[in-house]
């Protein structure tokens, strides 16, 4: 697969480098050496044996191509890896290598070790997004713009409250994911059928000590076919992806030429077209949305692996590995783009004002109807406000002027009263208060 051309551009380059084949082998080795350490500390390995194993294996060059080829026979990377590790040890140490473990212990724990720094990086990016969004939303707490429902102009809101919703979505996702990053990725150690066969209760001591050694969460029990940790992680990643995608979709829609209310941060060559020199495409939004759509697909796969048979999954477990890693790398890439967008978003209040005036003021038909209702009755007020809005749109005249000239309105309300009622800035509801409330919540943790 030409991954560098069609997959990697949606991911974080630094995350890719930290999650490659060598990193997976290193994570599996970290698990095995930590297991030997804790078993020695608990008297199951001769004194000094774990250090000698470390000396032999930390400098050993594992044949990753042979490991990859061996997966086709064993079904996972741990089996050929363990064979290579054992072959590299002297005979006296071989009995203590991979002692009491099974291949799923190695793979699951290695994946947790790979993902833990990635989740910390994602948390850092989300905090960066929170800071940028907070600055942006407070700067535009009172900037009026069109609120749109079903893709049509509805009523005025402020740009600040729109950004507040983006920020809340991302921060809610962060608070859901953060506990998993801090202490929710569990160690896996259960042995062949998850009951530490041959070790009796000492197996649980190994498991707890291994968690502490690897700085992973202690599991209540081995979770070979209890995939709740994977389910929780995948849905949390997907929740953040959905929040980032919402932001990117809104920004992309607002950058349309005819709307032009915002623009992605300018950068040489960014957003250029292969054939149309005038274009400035919202490429960052496209990358965010492309990554998010892939994450949603991966989440579907992971949700469908939640129920696994008996004491070891048959295909379900195997199907988790790539979607889990890819989702994490895709989300980190999407959030790198999201942070840049929030930090450098170009906001055009003059375009927002222009679009508010696109209907000649007809966007204010609802408050005008409320003003007319006590004088003319609710049904008549609604009819007149709608008629005047359509007349203003077709004639290009201001809504208040059309209303003032309406035969049923003359003599009841002045032009000044109608102009005040049709001013979008006078009908922003709780927008500014919502921005303040959102800011207080965002910075509460």
Q: How does this structure look, described?
A:
Belongs to the class-II fumarase/aspartase family. Residues 360-439 form the Adenylosuccinate lyase C-terminal domain. One of its GO terms (molecular function) is lyase activity. The protein has 445 residues and is mostly helical. It folds into 2 domains: 3-353, Fumarase/aspartase (Central domain) (Fumarase C, Chain A, domain 2, Up-down Bundle); 362-421, Ribonucleotide Reductase Protein R1, domain 1 (Orthogonal Bundle), CATH 1.10.40.30. Helix content is 62%, strand content 4%. The protein has helices at residues 3-6, 13-18, 21-41, 49-57, 64-74, 78-87, 103-139, 159-183, 202-214, 228-254, 283-303, 316-344, 349-356, 365-376, 378-395, 399-405, 415-421, 431-442, and strands at 144-149, 152-158, 262-263, 346-347. Strand 1 (144-149) and strand 2 form a beta hairpin. Helix 3 (21-41) runs antiparallel to helix 4. The longest helix is centred in the first third of the chain and has 37 residues, at 103-139. The two termini are 43 Å apart. The model has no long low-confidence stretch (mean pLDDT 94).
């Amino acid at each position: 697969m030409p991954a560098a051309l069609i997959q990697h551009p949606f991911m974080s380059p630094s995350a890719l480098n930290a999650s490659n084949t060598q990193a997976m082998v290193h994570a599996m080795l970290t698990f095995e050496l930590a297991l030997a350490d804790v078993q020695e500390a608990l008297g199951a390995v001769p004194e000094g044996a774990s250090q000698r194993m470390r000396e032999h294996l930390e400098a050993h060059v594992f044949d990753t191509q042979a490991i990859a080829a061996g997966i086709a026979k064993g079904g996972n990377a741990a089996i050929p890896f363990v064979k290579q590790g054992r072959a590299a040890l002297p005979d006296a140490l071989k009995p203590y290598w991979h002692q009491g473990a099974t291949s799923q212990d190695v793979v699951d724990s290695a994946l947790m070790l790979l993902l833990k720094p990635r989740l910390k990086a994602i948390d850092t990016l989300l905090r960066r997004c929170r800071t940028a969004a907070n600055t942006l939303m407070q700067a535009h707490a009172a900037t009026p713009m069109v609120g749109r429902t079903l893709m049509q102009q509805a009523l005025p809101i402020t740009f600040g409250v729109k950004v507040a919703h983006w920020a809340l979505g991302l921060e809610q996702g962060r608070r859901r994911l953060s506990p998993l990053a801090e202490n929710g990725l569990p160690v896996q150690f259960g042995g062949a059928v998850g009951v530490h066969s041959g070790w009796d209760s000492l197996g649980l001591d190994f498991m707890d000590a291994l968690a502490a050694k690897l700085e992973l969460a202690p599991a209540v029990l081995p979770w070979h076919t209890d995939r709740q940790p994977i389910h929780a992680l995948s849905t949390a990643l997907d929740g953040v992806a959905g929040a980032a995608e919402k932001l990117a979709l809104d920004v992309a829609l607002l950058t349309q030429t005819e709307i032009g209310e915002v623009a992605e941060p300018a950068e040489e060559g960014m957003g250029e077209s292969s054939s149309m020199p005038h274009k400035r495409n919202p490429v960052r939004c496209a990358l965010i949305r492309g990554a998010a759509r892939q994450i949603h697909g991966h989440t579907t796969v992971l949700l469908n692996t939640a129920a696994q048979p008996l004491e070891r999954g048959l295909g379900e477990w195997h199907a988790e590995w790539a979607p889990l890693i890819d989702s994490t790398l895709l989300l980190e890439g999407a959030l790198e783009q999201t942070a840049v967008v929030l930090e450098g978003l170009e906001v055009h209040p003059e375009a927002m004002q222009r679009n508010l005036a696109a209907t000649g003021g007809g966007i204010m038909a609802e408050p005008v109807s409320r003003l007319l209702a006590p004088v003319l009755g609710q049904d008549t007020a609604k009819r007149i406000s709608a008629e005047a809005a359509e007349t203003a749109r077709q004639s290009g005249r201001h809504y208040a002027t059309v209303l003032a000239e309406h035969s049923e309105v003359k003599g009841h309300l002045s032009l000044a009263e109608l102009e005040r009622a049709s001013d979008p800035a006078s009908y922003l509801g709780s927008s500014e208060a919502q921005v303040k409330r959102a800011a207080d919540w965002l910075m509460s943790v």
